[in-house]
Design brief:
five-stranded antiparallel β-sheet
Length: about 290
């Protein structure tokens, strides 16, 4: 363990300080006066304090003013956007080797109870710029953990790292063919993932910013492999739809082999892994909610 930046993005002690300052991620409840005037203490989820739409279980909702009603996979604008994403992934970010070279940072969901066969790789550079919906500068790339290959992107509506109102994929406001399939995570797993990224990779704790978000910025998926639901679907495509050949051998020191070993924290180089990974944060379920931990 160490306190300097050293070979790792954030030291263990720094993340411990950050987690303690933002409620520890191990104390979900806090005693407060009862709201009915009875004076009896009530336990309120500290993760949800001041967040009326937040939940402990996984949850998401459309961003304000957005909708998938006008979206169609065969619409020319969708075809153009998907083609641009496919070209960008093929030429610049085809696999984990290229993502590491491009400065992307990994995140493997810990609190989600569903499909764990894919991971998010986030770019601090692209999250921090002013571009939105730019296939050449995707804020996050979605990776198949079996083949270690990219299979889509997740655009994040931020400018200078701060959430902004997202643009439509196509269509004018109030038009029937408007497609704006942006979503935001209001459930604890998604909010924790964004908080962890901001602390581990953007070091917000260093400036005293330990706030746990009520929701994530608006996000939009574009899948380059066939998806039975939609190009813009939230969940990953089924394994049988991916048809991805294993990536080339890793360019970093590991015994893992794409196509044989699942991609995860344990196979990545030390310099890419924060000293406290998400699965080291304990999160009890005092309200009977099983988060699968």
């Amino acid at each position: 363990m160490h306190d300097s930046d050293g070979d790792r993005p954030v030291s263990r002690r720094a993340l411990l300080r950050a987690s303690a300052g933002t409620m520890g991620l191990s104390a979900v409840g806090s005693a407060q006066a009862g709201g009915d005037g009875g004076g009896e203490p009530a336990v309120a989820p500290r993760f949800d304090r001041g967040c009326p739409d937040a939940t402990l279980e996984p949850g998401m909702t459309h961003c304000e003013g957005t909708s998938m009603e006008g979206c169609a996979d065969d619409h020319p604008a969708t075809t153009e956007l998907r083609s641009g994403v496919a070209e960008s992934l093929e030429s610049r970010f085809p696999d984990v080797n290229a993502l590491i070279d491009g400065g992307f940072k990994p995140y493997f969901d810990t609190l989600e109870t569903g499909d764990d066969s894919w991971s998010h790789w986030l770019s601090p550079e692209f999250i921090g710029d002013d571009d939105i919906l730019n296939p050449e500068r995707p804020e996050s790339v979605l990776v198949d953990n079996e083949s270690w290959r990219s299979m889509g992107v997740m655009f994040i509506a931020t400018r200078g790292g701060e959430p902004v109102e997202p643009p439509a994929a196509y269509g004018e406001d109030e038009s029937t063919d408007r497609c704006s399939p942006w979503h935001t995570h209001t459930g604890l797993p998604g909010r924790f993932g964004w908080w962890y990224y901001k602390q581990a990779y953007e070091r917000e704790f260093a400036d005293g910013d330990l706030e746990f978000p009520c929701r994530t910025p608006c996000m939009l998926h574009v899948w380059t492999v066939d998806h039975p639901e939609s190009v813009y679907a939230h969940d990953a495509p089924p394994q049988e739809n991916r048809e991805l050949s294993p990536a080339a051998d890793p360019e970093f020191d590991t015994d893992a082999v794409p196509g044989e070993d699942e991609l995860g924290w344990d196979v990545l180089p030390n310099g890419l892994v924060p000293e406290r990974t998400p699965d080291e944060f304990s999160l009890p379920a005092p309200f009977g909610i099983d988060l699968g931990l």
